[in-house]
Design a protein that fits this description.
Largest interface: A-B, 30 and 34 residues
Largest sheet of chain A: 2 strands, antiparallel
Structural class of chain B: mainly alpha
Radius of gyration of chain B: 22 Å
Distance between the termini of chain B: 45 Å
Helix content of chain B: over 70%
Shape of chain B: globular
Low-confidence stretches of chain B: 521-531
Strand content of chain A: under 5%
Number of strands of chain B: 2
Structural class of chain A: mainly alpha
Oligomer: heterodimer
Number of helices of chain B: 21
Largest sheet of chain B: 2 strands, antiparallel
Strand order of the largest sheet of chain A: 1-2
Strand order of the largest sheet of chain B: 1-2
Number of strands of chain A: 2
Order of helices and strands of chain B: HHEEHHHHHHHHHHHHHHHHHHH
Shape of chain A: globular
């Protein structure tokens, strides 16, 4: 008996799980090498960034191979290939494969940026890259988590290295303050979230995502009992409490209002490279995990929960609208580029959360019996994935150009960018593309992503009208956001470089110039050749809604 | 040339032409100017080629829902977005106008010195955006081109403009983007209610109750129409969305003012007639009276505002508000008769024709007016009407040309401005007599501010303002631009049929289809399938 169990576990692990966890293992190998390099002293021979880059490239290659094999696998053979691994703690599907691909591509870009911009220096290299790779391992786990336990583990693995990276510029008071603020907030949010998780797990007796829906159906599925029944109402209250507390943890990671307070300080205090990393990678992973968790909970097919889901969906929509509006309004008065981008990050988290809200509202309608809604809610996830893909490039572009400009003029104040457009055209045109894409202007990728999310909101409005209000607020926010993004370009192009300011010479054909082009050209490509990513995003989204 | 290549080339030639400019040395000013000029001239040549190939009496098999040269290739298949272009009698004159005004504006750009390379690149991208708007027949594509114009325009006003350029540029951008967002929402609404389509021709069929299995209910059409209308009215601009226009015009450099007045404003009118009306006929019908009233109010308001200005360019800008009021008036005089084919329909057809003509005529005359103002500003560096006077004595040749162009703007019979104004006012008579009388009285105000301006600037005692010594006679290229514009102003005024022969068949089809679609018996049979 035990022997058979052990053999099957061994078989599953060696034949399937290890291959599927290949990217994580490659990154871990990179971390081990980095640490050993310190210990054995070969870090003087091989610079740490090469080790980190090799690990990241290997992980990226593996995830690409997995992604392609996932997409070329015959759907009828799905049962053997897709599904849970590591005895149910993780799951593998096209959705996870795609997000992992995004994350690792992003990691390669961030590593290249740190090499170009020279943060960290040779002394701190191994530490920094260990933290960076470690955070990404956590994020990869978040993308494929299939258990409430893994939710917490993944989030913490991603967060703890981030705290240290935020304070990485050790000499700077601002950096240390930011890191401390980040830790305190993070610890608080994690505690609340853990409490929520334990409530949910305790109530349902399982942490497994596949089981959650079934247990909820058992708990609430009794057709003759209504929700006004006092015993049942107490259960509902507990469920609601658990969900809200779990959401707090996510809201912290996603910097959703009112859990956003750490964001501006951390982004201003941390180096721009770290800011870029945090703003994209941790968002992408957290949104992937949130999507999974929400769908796991909403897979309960009982009509008695329909109203609850609808209300939750509307609540998420309202929070999203408030977040987007707050981020955009607060960004107005910023004079520091990184702080401005921090508020813009908050606003964009709001837009992306709108996709989740639309999905929730559409799903709640599906429980009501409209089967066409499965496909429609998969479009919301498709929009979210597309947005994340574009966001990867446009936000990384904005942060990396900020870092490159900082290396030239030693300032991150928008004021000091005056007239820069005529001295460093590559940097400023690149920045222009990133910022206009963040506004959501065609023919740039940001427009397509925003359009997809708005389309889902409009569609969700047919289930409940409140989504139309959210859509209107989203549209209004687009106009609001224009002003502060344009302010940067106005400073760069519409004012002359003041006399006595550093003259910047930034050749287009240097490695940094090429890097800027490499990051910004995909923004245009994603805006024109939409099929390129939207096909993959659609396939990835659809698998989540197969029942 | 096959239609796919011709239309695609017209749209993208300017933008492609901008690519080699990147390799130019920024100091080789003349090379850049001539290269840019060649690009716009070639584009204009291609639009003339389109005119040659355009068939006035097409065989039915040449047409696709009234469109010639129609073609469509999939662009984003998941979203059913197509790259579809086509041209009919409504868009053809506007495409030609765009080609012409861009060419003339490029010639007028010779005085630009600052960052010339960037200027020409942005100028060419702008031209691609404008041509794309007039040729695209897919809503998504239309929207992309519509927004693509914003970026170059922002920088063209913001970098090369006057003292308050930053304010004017951001105001222009914000207004248009706000309108664009409304349009976007309407676009998505239509998309979901029409079986996931962005095809303007399909949407029009659905809106007119001919969609197979789909239809828009009346409430739906009114909502969508209002969203679209506000988006387009901002561009038109109609009162109360016009306030960006005087600022943008005053601060923009002369060639950009010419493009703004000559082409960009027409996009509002074009959008109303190409998108808002055909797709939401019930909404258009519902709002008709309001639109006519708004048009008439814009005419009067713009004229009074123009009377009050002391800045020459601002005066011309307000005259645009006034003149574009006739466009709105002409488009909207839609009175549904008791039965199909009611005589009222002829008045509406006349009104739409007049509105289309007025767009072209205003494109000629206001381009000319801004150019004429620019000539003076280049010389004396101010635009204060109170400091002018006596220019006629110093620059008689220029004064003659300027007077001709101003009279075209005034609407003097025999010049292009007359046709559009008179027909739109006439068509209004059957719609609502009071409004027609008010609109007609606008002509007096127009005559008032233009004659008064001509008197203050060109006649009177000798010029005593600043930089009097700089008032040298016209340069060759300035003469060329002014003569070309005057030529068209007179030509279209004497032979209006040159334009009407292209417009009228398309307008007639549109008017007949729309009227048939709102007729009560059709309203009853149309099923409301809006989810």
């Amino acid at each position: 008996m035990f022997q058979a169990l052990f053999t099957s576990l061994l078989q599953e692990t060696t034949q399937r799980s290890l291959w599927l966890a290949g990217p994580e293992l490659a990154l871990t190998a990179g971390i081990v090498l980095l640490l050993l390099g310190r210990l054995l002293g070969f870090d003087k021979l091989i610079p740490p960034h090469w080790i980190a880059l090799a690990g990241a490239m290997a992980a990226f290659g593996l995830s690409l191979a997995i992604f392609y094999s996932a997409n070329s696998t015959d759907p009828t053979a799905a049962d053997e290939y897709f599904g849970v691994y590591f005895s149910g703690l993780m799951t593998f599907d096209k959705f996870g494969a795609l997000v992992r691909l995004f994350l690792l591509l992003f990691l390669v870009f961030v590593l290249a940026l740190t090499v170009l911009s020279g943060i960290p220096d040779a002394e701190d290299g191994p530490d920094f890259y260990t933290l960076l790779l470690g955070a990404v391992v956590g994020m990869l786990l978040m993308c494929s988590a299939n258990n409430l336990l893994m939710v917490f583990l993944g989030i913490e693995m991603a967060s703890v290295p981030s705290y240290a990276m935020a304070g990485f510029l050790k000499g700077r008071k601002q950096g240390s303050e930011a890191a401390l603020k980040f830790v305190v907030f993070g610890a608080g949010a994690a505690g609340v979230m853990l409490y929520g998780i334990s409530l949910l797990a305790g109530m349902l007796g399982t942490g497994d995502f596949q089981e959650i829906g079934l247990r909820l159906t058992v708990l609430f599925g009794n057709a003759d009992g209504t929700l006004s029944d006092p015993v049942r109402a107490a259960t509902i209250r507990t469920l609601l409490l658990a969900l809200v507390m779990i959401f707090v943890g996510f809201a912290f990671k996603l910097s959703i209002v009112p859990f956003h307070f750490w964001t501006p300080d951390v982004f201003q205090g941390a180096p721009a490279e770290v800011g870029g990393f945090l703003s994209v990678a941790s968002k992408a992973a957290a949104f992937a995990l949130l999507t999974r968790l929400v769908l796991a909970i909403m897979s309960a097919g009982t009509a008695s929960l329909q109203d609850l889901y609808l209300i939750l969906g509307i609540a998420v929509g309202v929070i999203a609208a408030v977040t987007a509006t707050f981020g955009n309004l607060a960004a107005y008065s910023q004079t520091n580029m990184k702080r401005m981008l921090a508020y813009s990050t908050i606003a964009h988290a709001g837009y992306m959360l709108m996709a989740i809200a639309a999905m929730m509202v559409l799903q709640s309608g599906r429980i009501g019996g409209d089967t066409s809604l499965a496909e429609r809610s998969s479009h919301a996830v498709e929009g979210l994935l597309y947005y994340l893909a574009v966001y990867l490039f446009m936000n990384l572009g904005a942060f990396s150009i900020t870092a490159l400009i900082r290396n030239e003029i030693f300032s991150e104040e928008i004021e000091d960018y005056r007239g820069l457009g005529y001295q460093a055209p590559v940097l400023c045109v690149g920045m222009g593309l990133c910022l206009f894409s963040l506004v959501g202007l065609p023919p740039l990728g940001g427009f397509v992503g925003k359009l997809m999310i708005f389309a889902s909101l409009l569609d969700a409005g047919y289930v409940h009208w409140s989504m139309w209000v959210i859509l209107a607020i989203g549209g209004l926010n687009t106009v609001l956001s224009l002003f502060y993004y344009l302010n940067v370009l106005k400073t760069m192009y519409l004012t002359e470089r003041p006399a006595g300011a550093t003259t910047v010479t930034f050749p287009a054909w240097s490695s940094a110039g090429l890097y800027v082009m490499l990051v910004t050209v995909p923004i245009i490509v994603l805006g024109v050749h939409v099929q390129l990513v939207s096909n993959a995003a659609r396939r990835a989204a659809e698998v989540l809604f197969l029942q | 040339m096959s239609s796919e290549y011709l239309l695609t080339l017209i749209v993208f030639l300017p933008a492609l032409w901008a690519l080699p400019l990147l390799a130019f040395d920024g100091k080789a000013a003349d090379a850049i100017r001539y290269f840019g000029l060649l690009g716009t001239a070639l584009t204009f040549g291609l639009t003339l080629q389109l005119l040659m190939q355009y068939d006035l009496t097409p065989a039915p098999e040449q047409l696709h829902n009234g469109m010639q040269f129609y073609f469509s290739v999939p662009w984003i298949e998941n979203w059913n977005v197509n790259y579809s272009l086509g041209v009919d009698g409504i868009s053809l004159p506007l495409v030609l106008l765009t080609g012409l005004v861009s060419l003339l504006a490029m010639i007028a750009s010779w005085s630009i010195e600052k960052h010339l390379k960037g200027y020409v690149i942005l100028f060419l991208i702008l031209e691609t955006g404008m041509l794309g708007v007039f040729l695209s027949l897919d809503f998504f594509l239309f929207y992309v081109f519509w927004e693509v114009m914003l970026l170059p325009m922002y920088f063209l006003i913001g970098v090369w403009g006057g003292p308050r350029r930053e304010y004017a540029a951001i105001k222009f951008f914000l207004y248009t983007l706000a309108g664009g967002v409304l349009m976007l929402i309407a676009m998505l609404m239509l998309y979901f209610s029409s079986g996931n389509s962005f095809d303007l021709l399909h949407l029009a069929e659905v809106g007119q109750g001919l969609g197979k299995g789909f239809a828009f209910s009346k409430e739906f059409q009114i909502t969508a129409f209002l969203l679209l209308f506000i988006g387009f009215a901002i561009k038109l601009p109609s009162f109360p969305f016009h306030t960006w226009l005087p600022d943008a015009h005053v601060e923009a450099p002369t060639p950009i003012s010419m493009i703004l007045a000559g082409v960009l404003l027409k996009m509002g009118g074009y959008g109303i007639i190409r998108i808002a009306f055909p797709i939401c006929p019930l909404g258009a019908q519902y709002c008709a009276y309001g639109m006519v009233a708004l048009g008439v109010f814009s005419i009067i308001y713009g004229a009074f505002a123009a009377l009050a200005q002391t800045d020459f360019k601002r005066l011309v800008a307000y005259s645009s508000v006034s003149h574009m009021g006739y466009v709105l008036l002409g488009l909207a005089v839609w009175k549904v008769g008791e039965k199909a084919g009611d005589p009222n329909l002829h008045y509406w057809r006349m009104g739409v024709n007049a509105a289309m003509f007025q767009m072209i005529a205003h494109g000629i005359s206001s381009t000319g007016m801004f150019f004429v103002v620019g000539i003076l500003y280049d010389r004396v560096h101010h635009r204060d009407l109170n400091k002018f006077g006596g220019i006629a004595g110093l620059m008689p040749h220029y004064t003659g040309l300027a007077a001709g162009i101003f009279f075209a703007g005034l609407g003097l019979p025999g010049l292009c401005g007359f046709i559009g104004e008179i027909f739109s006012v006439l068509s209004c008579w059957s719609f609502d007599k009071t409004l027609a009388i008010i609109a007609a009285s606008g002509v007096i105000l127009t005559a008032g501010y233009i004659l008064w301006t001509v008197q203050r600037v060109y006649f009177g005692p000798a010029y005593k303002g600043p930089h009097g010594e700089a008032l040298v006679p016209l340069l060759g290229r300035e003469q060329f631009v002014a003569y070309v514009l005057l030529f068209f102003a007179i030509g279209l005024g004497v032979f209006p049929n040159l334009l009407f022969q292209y417009m009228d068949p398309s307008v007639k089809t549109l008017v007949d289809n729309l009227d048939a679609s709102v007729h009560p018996q059709i309203i009853e049979t149309a099923t409301t399938l809006v989810p």
